Amino acid sequence: MNLLRFSSFKKLLTLKFAQSLPVLQQTQIKAYHWQDKTENQKTSDASNKFTELDPEGWNERWKNRNIGFHKDHINVMLEKHVKRLVNKRENIKIFIPLCGKSLDMKWLADQGHTIVGVDCAEVAFKEFFEEHSLEHTVEPVENLSGKVYTSKDKKIMLYCCDFYKFSRDTAGQFNGIWDRGSLVAINRQDRQKYSTLMKSLMAPDCQYLVDTYDYNEELWPDTYDYNEELWPGPPHYVSAEQIQSLYGDTCDIEDVDTVDHMEEKHKKWGLDYINERLHVITLKK
Ligand SMILES: C[S@@+](CC[C@H](N)C(=O)[O-])C[C@H]1O[C@@H](n2cnc3c(N)ncnc32)[C@H](O)[C@@H]1O
């Protein structure tokens, strides 16, 4: 409650402060917040609030090395809760949507699991196989208008294509899904389409771990109407209620863990706090 009141107070101050500035200075503030954006990024027409990126825009980010989302360590939540993903099974088939060149893939493959990933940025796959010195093949996949990168031991298969072209006809269903930097990265208006596809990829025993962020409550669109200078994502805010509405029709959802995720860059985004949250999604019996 106190936090809520503080957030509203801060919002009011921000608004008053911005209104009192000459136009030039307001433009500079805006430029500061948008400094790591590329020209292919734009805000949503519907709300004029949130960044929208298409595969071309993401490829440009990779080209410009604007890839702050890539970490040189295994994700903390994954390391802590990998047992929930594996669920006492061996050599399971794990899906990593919007995988980039995440180290999590190699880490899970080294534990004996088979990894299938999808990303539109071929440079990510080239770097992944090179950085791990993995022998691999590259083949075209015509119906995806893309390619598949396969490690020699066939433990890692990475599809380079638009995610929404991928389906269970491509590589079947999965026993586990690790969704980090994926649901939070997609354009907000695509969430329903995304969750419908994800549910179709879940085998009956699938343990789907989804990692999301929540941050300053006043940045959440339902609760404020002034956001010109505030964080437009990605990552986008995904609430527990939103996960329920996207997956709750056919799935059970468990809120498993919340950890503080605040880094220096988040302060520059204008956030007071940012938490990383983990949910486990399973098909209803
Ligand atoms: C925030 S990054 C996360 C990468 C990875 N999951 C990680 O944790 O490092 C989002 C990734 O999604 C990819 N991407 C975004 N939209 C896509 C789409 N429509 N189809 C395929 N890949 C997409 C981008 O190229 C980018 O690598």
Automatic annotation (TrEMBL):
<dbReference type="GO" id="GO:0005737">
    <property type="term" value="C:cytoplasm"/>
</dbReference>
<dbReference type="Pfam" id="PF05724">
    <property type="entry name" value="TPMT"/>
</dbReference>
<keyword id="KW-0808">Transferase</keyword>
<dbReference type="GO" id="GO:0008119">
    <property type="term" value="F:thiopurine S-methyltransferase activity"/>
</dbReference>
<protein>
    <recommendedName>
        <fullName>thiopurine S-methyltransferase</fullName>
        <ecNumber>2.1.1.67</ecNumber>
    </recommendedName>
</protein>
<dbReference type="GO" id="GO:0032259">
    <property type="term" value="P:methylation"/>
</dbReference>
<keyword id="KW-0489">Methyltransferase</keyword>
<comment type="similarity">
    <text>Belongs to the class I-like SAM-binding methyltransferase superfamily. TPMT family.</text>
</comment>
<keyword id="KW-0963">Cytoplasm</keyword>
<keyword id="KW-0949">S-adenosyl-L-methionine</keyword>
<dbReference type="InterPro" id="IPR029063">
    <property type="entry name" value="SAM-dependent_MTases_sf"/>
</dbReference>
<dbReference type="InterPro" id="IPR025835">
    <property type="entry name" value="Thiopurine_S-MeTrfase"/>
</dbReference>
<dbReference type="InterPro" id="IPR008854">
    <property type="entry name" value="TPMT"/>
</dbReference>
